[in-house]
Amino acid sequence: MAFKINFYIVQFEDLENKMTEKKLGSKIVGEEYLVLHEFVKKAREKLPKETWDYLIGASETETTFKRNRFALDNIAFRPRVLRDVENVDLSVDLFGHNLKMPVILAPIGSMQDFVDGAGTAPTLAASEFGIMHMISSTCMPGLEEVAKSVNYPKLFQLYVRGNKDWVDDNIKNAMDHNYAGICLTVDLDAYGRRERDLAKRYRTTSRQSASGFEHQMRFSWKDIDRIKSYCHLPIIIKGIATKEDALLAVEHGVEVVYVSNHGGRQLDYGLGGLNVLPEISEAIGNNAKVIFDGGIMRGTDVVKAIALGADCVGIGRLQGFAAAAGGSKAIVRMLELLELEILTALRLLGVNSIFDLDDTYLSKDYSFGKLSALSAFPLIDEGY
Ligand SMILES: Cc1cc2nc3c(=O)[nH]c(=O)nc-3n(C[C@H](O)[C@H](O)[C@H](O)COP(=O)(O)O)c2cc1C
Predict the structure, then answer these.
(1) Are 139 and 110 in contact (CB under 8 A)?
(2) Which homologous superfamily is 47-366 in?
(3) How far is 317 from 47, CA to CA, in rounded Å?
């Protein structure tokens, strides 16, 4: 009898182990996510509607956001063949720091609302994968804690919420905490009206306590000159959408022009981001680096932006989906899949190095695409 009981216990333990293994197995993020749309589905399943809408939402009619995708979808490829593409190099340099691929994690505020560790989750993921994260000043746990989380280059993005002393203190704090670059987001002189949130009377945690918006409205090129006079870090201006402003940025000694319309969350009825990228990258030439974001959800999107003159692209919502789906580990997995997609696209285009990409690999195809926020993931609608 005793033997039998033991036997059953052993059996049960075995079963438990198997179940645990199985459970652990299914938790191995690498197996859980094989295609990028799975992060979108998981995030939508897990998040309360308020948070999902905060993440996916854009301002007013959401046309700018949809145009970001439309601009990407309308570009077709012109592949070359027979070029020995066994070894493909994706790595690039940003301010003397090597990025494993030309991608950064864009700043996302209020990450505390949907991922444990908030802003540290993407920082840890970026360091594990080998790219950089740009932490938002409206994201917990703040620049000091994020700086302490891992000894790896990171970028700091600031919204102007105080007078010039306040701004300078924040920038000096980021310098003291060894950030690799300072980003000033400048497309927020009025707060974009995101109607999904407004219609539900919803405010994110960081908006509940936000004040000092008038300082952002007053902010001007004079402030950039002042910051340049003491800041020894590269300055990134995020929210440039015309060649005129890009050229001004260069005149004021800015190191990086960050072409962005804030993922369509600010001015509605803007052009699709990719449509303004060529005029900007042509205008500034080698006088500044160009980061681009807006609608990037796929490896092919990254390839298109680089071919049109970006040095590097920012990942916004896709990062948010992965973070919400499974925190830092899922962000790493998302980056692995993005890398795989970039590599696949480059091999199929006959390109060995990201630096060889140019617009001869692209063509326009206006017959394709519809205005749709999630056009990058058509299989979701088919139940996959
Ligand atoms: C939920 C959310 C929060 C954001 N918060 C910030 C922020 O705090 N600072 C900032 O400069 N941009 C912010 N952005 C804009 C992103 O940095 C980026 O420009 C945009 O998301 C790119 O478009 P994509 O989401 O289509 O990739 C936010 C975007 C989203 C989706």
Answers:
(1) yes
(2) Aldolase class I (3.20.20.70)
(3) 14
The ranges assigned to domains in the chain are: 2-32, 47-366
**CB of 84 closer than 8 Å to CB of 298:** no
Closest Cα to atom 20, ligand 1: which residue?
A: 263
In 74-211, which residue ranges form alpha helices assigned H by DSSP?
Answer: 120-129, 143-149, 164-176, 195-199, 205-208
Residue 151: closest CA among 186, 188, 126: 126
Please identify every residue annotated as catalytic.
Answer: 262
Reference 293, options 319, 309, 322, 316; nearest CA is: 316
Task: Check pocket membership of 262 for ligand 1, CB cut-off 6 A.
Answer: yes
Determine the pLDDT at residue 29.
Answer: 52
Task: Return the ligand 1 atom nearest residue 296 CA.
Answer: 27
- Torsion, Cα 135 137 141 143, to 10 degrees, reads 70
pTM tops 0.90: yes
In the numeric block, the tokens 């040095």 are attached to 311
Q: What is the pLDDT of residues 115-137, one digit of tens each?
A: 999 999 999 999 999 999 999 99
Q: Determine the Cα–Cα distance for residues 140 and 305; give it in Å rounded to an integer.
A: 30
User: Please, which pLDDT band fits residue 18 given cuts at 50, 70 and 90?
Assistant: very low
Question: Is the confidence at residue 16, as pLDDT, over 80?
Answer: no
